[in-house]
Design goal:
With 153 residues, the protein is α/β, with parallel strands linked by helices. Helix content is 29%, strand content 22%. It has a six-stranded mixed β-sheet with strand order 1-2-3-4-5-6. It is globular and about 40 Å long.
């Protein structure tokens, strides 16, 4: 898991998110970062698969980061599969066995344990797919036209 990409001003969790997003492309997934599925939650990475499947991946850069996350159970109702993404030095025995596990770095990742599937109801899937599309389009627009930020916020 090595590469040749600059990483200035990126936090450890952001670097994990980038590696996870890169890896998910090998499953034909597209991803967005920091998507809000509902008030009070912000998914580090959300993946949308070729058959409409929705995965949420929470990136944890340290033991303290994981132990301070009391709300991760709330993400389960917003995805078909849930994963943790951590680096190779993370104490994975802390992570619940009934969740997915991705080992990642800034450049790539690998699914170590597939998260169990719990399919979303059709109406929720449609809503999440719409949120995903709008989030991605907004991010793309801000990248093209940064001065437009105040209007989209």
């Amino acid at each position: 898991m090595n590469g040749d990409v600059s990483t200035p001003n990126k936090q450890p969790g952001q670097l994990l998110a980038r590696g996870v997003s890169r890896h998910l492309t090998s499953y034909d997934f597209v991803t967005v970062e920091e998507l809000v599925p509902t008030s009070g939650l912000r998914a580090d990475v959300m993946g949308l698969g070729p058959k409409g499947e929705i995965w949420i991946i929470e990136c944890k850069s340290s033991r303290a980061d994981f132990q301070s996350d009391n709300k991760w159970h709330r993400y389960l109702e917003w995805c078909d599969r849930y994963f943790w993404a951590v680096d190779v030095d993370f104490p994975t025995e802390l992570l619940p066995d009934d969740t997915g596990l991705i080992i990642a770095d800034a450049y790539n990742g690998e699914i170590i344990r597939m998260g169990p599937e719990d399919k979303l109801p059709a109406a929720r899937r449609k809503g999440m797919t719409m949120k995903f599309a709008r989030h991605a389009a907004r991010r793309h627009h801000l990248e093209r036209d940064p001065t437009f930020r105040s209007i989209l916020s």
